[in-house]
Fold:
Amino acid sequence: MLRVDLHIHTSFSPDSLIGLQGLVRRCLETGLTCIAVTDHNTIQGALALSRTAPFKVIVGEEIKTSGGELVGLFLKEEVPRGLTPLETIRRVKEQGGLVSIPHPFDVLRRSVIRRDALEEVLPLIDIIEVFNARNIFRASNSRAMQLAEVRGLVKAAVSDAHSTRELGRTYMEMPDLEIDPALFKAALAEARLVTRPSGALAHFLSTYAKLRAKLNGRRGG
Structure:
């Protein structure tokens, strides 16, 4: 069985404290065997890790669109930020990738996809996060689960980790298989979701990472 986490940030995101070596070490410690690296508006960290990691790595990107964030998975090329949600999805699908809606109802994140944009893209998306471990309010995940069940969407539980302490707490178990987008999506629909919230400390660590990045002259999404 694979133990899968489809939303992880590395130090290539300015709000993450996870270095690539630390990510590998923590995945091995916690038994994660398939991860998607989804840094903000870049695939550079994902590409680097995919060449060296001793487990399956899906190249992903959390993309800031004009209507809020979307996640592209199984990418070969970076999708630029600032495009419309529909154009962003087109560019992901053009590469044979999958599109996921991250933390769709989190009221504390300004980057969440807008309601009008969500309605527009729902027929086109592949996956929706029904449990994001960083959501502070339980209702945020409950609303996502309800939407997934009403619309018949493929569900995902993710850590959205920005620090190594968050890794291995929330994940999905599914059969081991070749990493092909269509096969992966079909298997994901039958996955067992293991869910544990990260707690408020996770957000304080992200704030610290952002401040550190600013002091070092880095900028990002």
Notes: The chain is about 35% helix and 20% strand. The CA atoms of residues 10 and 18 lie 5 Å apart. Helices lie at 20-30, 44-50, 85-94, 115-121, 138-151, 181-188, 201-215. The mean pLDDT is 93.
